[in-house]
From TrEMBL:
The lineage of its organism: Eukaryota, Fungi, Dikarya, Ascomycota, Pezizomycotina. Residues 30-270 form the SET domain. Gene3D superfamilies: set domain protein methyltransferase, domain 1 (3.90.1410.10). InterPro entries: SET_dom, SET_dom_sf, SETD3_SETD6_MTase. It comes from the Eukaryota. This is SET domain-containing protein.
Length: 483
């Protein structure tokens, strides 16, 4: 229905029809337009200044609140759309999330936009036509197997594999919840007349994932017109978005910004997002990015840890750690690492306690003091006389995992080069992104290994660590003469 489905899909609208659509639906533009940037037509449409602009201007764009596609917005649509409400109810908790409700709404609007679908399946809205302006996204969830193989050793490879599994579960949940709804059975699932495929679910996910913004007072949402603006970080960000007193979405020029006619108006999708997340969510890496910025490495507690099951049960954080590049060097953070590197002989304990309502609950303790959360564990360790020892363990654990990831990445380089020599068919854009991501992540891993190696050496020279590693060197034993 949308992409590589069983029907060709709806009529795509040219970007020249965008301004009339915006005018019709109450969107106001102030000195700007939407269209391809001259000389960069391959990048698609963006927001462009039509005249000279400076800070202090009225909002560059105002989008009425009823066009904002949020959880609240979908719920309002459902009040007048019986079919939408029935489907959201059938999906249970998933239908009550921003992501779930928006994806289902997009899917219904896409269905209603198909020429072969009779009227009445979904209540048409301005958004029915808006999705006809949206381009087909080339996120990694649409990459071929050969293209995904280029990601071997990067943190994006497991992220995409996990995402595809998650999307497949959602798709099967949608099928299970809706196959007994009459119109869903006819237009989505029937062997002869059904047109829905997994690719269609991938496409509405890509629409949402690549265009969702977190608006003040609204939360995660899609905002037509504002989401046409491209990304730039730091000083390259020209405009910012927020809501006005009436709940409308507005686009404002940043302080001290000056633009000439023809200049591009950019927003930030998140200055701190790493290269992996940029490719994952938006399908590009910013040209000015010289570092992967950050990456997440998963971590497994060793099987010989007697407290492994209890640690995994009590943990509420992701099983791994985040490496990040900052001005003064590479650093890492993780509650999970600290949980992994201490044990019962250090002072960690788990007890099953009875709650006030009669249930039983597993609780973590550090030297008889209950930990209200894993974030308290690091604080407790920092206050412990053995802090340098715990730091050394954590640093060694992080270094081992960084080294394993680097071996995986660099060890796959030869295979990647062989693929290129054999002429494996890969599209230019995925190939370029994959190779650049490999370079950026490889550089960050090398810097990280060197950084933690220096920290290990410094910790090894502390008196606390020396006494722990060589207890016989303690002064208490020096009086004995074994000559």
């Amino acid at each position: 229905m949308i992409r590589r489905g069983r029907v060709e899909g709806w009529l795509r609208l040219p970007i020249s029809a965008f301004k009339p659509w915006a005018d019709l639906n109450g969107v106001t533009f102030n000195g700007i337009k939407v269209g391809p940037l001259p000389g960069h037509e391959d990048r698609g449409s963006t927001v462009i200044a039509e005249r000279a602009l400076s800070d202090g201007e009225d909002p560059l764009m105002v989008v009425p609140r009823d066009l904002v596609l949020s959880l609240e917005g979908v719920q309002i649509h459902a009040r007048s759309d019986r079919n939408l409400q029935e489907l959201l109810d059938a999906l249970g908790d998933f239908g009550r999330t921003a992501r779930g409700s928006i994806l289902v709404f997009l899917l219904m609007q896409a269905t209603a936009a198909c020429p072969s679908v009779s009227k009445g399946v979904a209540v048409r809205s301005p958004l029915t036509d808006y999705i006809k302006f949206l381009p087909e996204e080339l996120l990694p969830t649409f990459w071929t197997e050969a293209e995904l193989n280029l990601l071997e050793g990067t943190t994006l490879k497991p992220a995409i594999e996990a995402k595809l599994k998650s999307l497949n579960r959602e798709y099967e949940q949608l099928r299970s919840a809706s196959e007994d709804i009459e119109w869903c059975q006819k237009y989505w699932w029937d062997e002869d007349t059904g047109m829905l495929s997994f690719d269609d679910w991938l496409q509405v996910d890509a629409m949402y994932r690549s265009r969702a913004l977190e608006f003040p007072g609204i939360g995660d949402c899609m905002v037509p017109c504002v989401d046409m603006a491209n990304h730039a970080s730091g000083e390259g960000t020209v405009a910012l978005y927020e809501t006005d007193g009436q709940g409308n979405a507005v686009l404002l020029l940043r302080d001290d910004k000056r633009l000439e006619a023809g200049d591009e108006i950019t927003i930030t999708y998140g200055d701190e997002k790493g290269a992996c997340e940029m490719v994952f969510s938006y399908g590009f890496i910013e040209d000015s990015m010289t570092s992967a910025r950050e990456l997440f490495l998963d971590l497994e507690i060793p099987d010989d840890d007697p407290l492994k099951r209890a640690k995994k049960f009590i943990s509420t954080s992701a099983p791994g750690f985040r490496l990040f590049d900052k001005a003064d060097g590479i650093s890492w953070e993780s509650d999970y690492v600290w949980l992994s590197c201490v044990n019962e002989e250090d002072g960690l304990d788990f007890r099953v306690l009875q709650t006030t309502d009669g249930n039983r609950e597993l609780k973590a303790f550090w030297k008889e003091e209950e930990l209200r959360g894993l974030t308290q564990l690091k604080d407790a360790l920092e206050a412990d006389p053995m802090w340098e020892v715990f730091r050394l363990r954590a640093t060694a654990l992080v270094q081992d995992r960084v080294e394993a990831q680097a071996r995986l990445l660099f060890g796959s380089d030869e295979g990647i080069r062989t693929m290129g020599l054999e002429g494996t068919t890969c599209r230019a854009r995925p190939k370029a992104l994959a190779m650049r991501l490999r370079t950026l992540e490889g550089s960050l891993l090398e810097k990280a290994w060197n950084s933690v190696e220096s920290e290990k050496q410094e910790l090894a020279e502390t008196e606390t660590v020396k006494r722990y590693l060589n207890p016989l060197s303690d002064s208490r034993y020096e009086e004995e003469d074994f000559s």
